[in-house]
């Protein structure tokens, strides 16, 4: 298993006149290549805060983040921006498309920013739109597309840069339940077929079924981690009630010492050993 994303003891405290808000407390999270991890929790549980920390959009009060083998929390702003651009794809609840641009132009935008050559840009745009099933809608503007189609453009834009990690904060929050399930299936398919790692937040219990693993947040703390299925259909019976943490009997425990699973981990262990 190669880790694509790792957060270690992530804590984010917001200070305000009314007192401190502990949005994330001591959260450990690992996401492997080809793994879809769903972060679930009620409103205010800390999902967006956690995703922002993992995506380098916010800095933790304490704790560390690795994107692949790069420690994101050790980078300066410019370096972090580059790592974000090259390795991460973001999908937002509000789609975040530019209304006057066609679907293809929206998908192309991050490639322009990354200064990808024009011919390669065209190839990637076509490929990304095909992967989300919108090859025939390339010329349409967001206003001429349905909500589900718009979100698929948002996903195409995120994957066009061929990120290692997809970070999606309630990508289905604005969609009806059937469309939401389709979008979530698409994310699951992309993760498993392209070897992407994905962290997706939701409070929709139905979407949790698509996850390889579910992390439950409550008041900024992880209350349970459930489901350890590899690629393929996720654990189907976690739709109601908190996931039971007892089902990782055959998987290695998250905090037990283990042999290095990635080159980065091996390096890390060598460092801490000596
Ligand atoms: N910039 C901020 N300043 C102060 N408090 C904040 C800030 N951002 C988030 N919080 C607080 O941190 C807690 C977690 O918020 P967060 O947005 O992460 O929750 P969430 O799980 O994403 O909720 P939702 O499902 O409503 O999107 C909340 O109590 C929130 O009020
Ligand atoms: Mg949120």
From TrEMBL:
Q: Which Gene3D superfamilies match?
A: P-loop containing nucleotide triphosphate hydrolases
PROSITE patterns in alphabetical order: ABC_TRANSPORTER_1, ABC_TRANSPORTER_2
Could you tell me which residues belong to the region Disordered? Answer: 223-274
Alphabetized InterPro entries for the sequence:
AAA+_ATPase (IPR003593), ABC_transporter-like_ATP-bd (IPR003439), ABC_transporter-like_CS (IPR017871), ABC_transpr_LolD-like (IPR015854), MacB-like_ATP-bd (IPR017911), P-loop_NTPase (IPR027417)
Per the record, the domain of life is Bacteria
Task: List all Basic and acidic residues biased stretches.
Answer: 255-274
- Can you supply one Gene Ontology CC term for this chain's record? membrane protein complex
| Gene Ontology molecular function terms on file | ATP binding; ATP hydrolysis activity; transmembrane transporter activity
Residue stretches making up the ABC transporter domain: 5-244
Q: Which UniProt keywords apply?
A: ATP-binding, Nucleotide-binding, Transport
* Pfam families named among the record's database cross-references: ABC_tran
Its protein name is: ABC transporter ATP-binding protein
**What's the source species for this entry?**
Microbacterium allomyrinae
């Amino acid at each position: 298993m190669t880790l694509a994303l790792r957060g270690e003891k992530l804590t984010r405290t917001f200070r305000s006149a009314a007192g401190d808000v502990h949005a994330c407390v001591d959260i450990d999270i690992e996401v492997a290549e080809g793994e879809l991890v769903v972060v679930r929790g009620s409103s205010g549980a800390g999902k967006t805060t956690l995703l922002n920390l993992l995506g380098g959009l916010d800095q933790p009060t304490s704790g560390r983040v690795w994107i692949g083998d790069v420690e994101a929390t050790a980078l300066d702003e410019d370096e972090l921006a580059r790592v974000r651009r090259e390795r991460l794809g973001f999908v937002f609840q509000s789609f975040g498309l530019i209304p006057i641009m066609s679907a293809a132009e929206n998908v192309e935008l991050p490639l322009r920013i990354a200064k990808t050559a024009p011919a390669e840009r065209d190839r990637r745009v076509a490929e990304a739109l095909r992967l989300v099933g919108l090859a025939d809608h390339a010329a349409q503007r967001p206003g001429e597309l349905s909500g589900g189609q718009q979100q698929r453009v948002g996903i195409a834009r995120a994957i066009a840069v061929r990120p290692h990690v997809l970070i999606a904060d309630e990508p289905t929050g604005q969609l009806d339940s059937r469309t939401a399930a389709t979008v979530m299936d698409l994310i699951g398919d992309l993760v498993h077929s392209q070897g992407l790692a994905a962290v997706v937040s939701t409070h929709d219990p139905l979407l949790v079924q698509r996850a390889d693993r579910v992390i439950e947040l409550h008041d900024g703390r992880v209350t349970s981690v459930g489901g350890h299925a590899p690629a393929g259909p996720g654990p189907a019976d976690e739709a109601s009630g908190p996931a039971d943490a007892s089902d990782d009997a055959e998987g290695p425990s998250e905090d037990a010492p283990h042999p290095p699973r990635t080159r980065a981990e091996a390096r890390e262990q060598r460092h801490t050993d000596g």
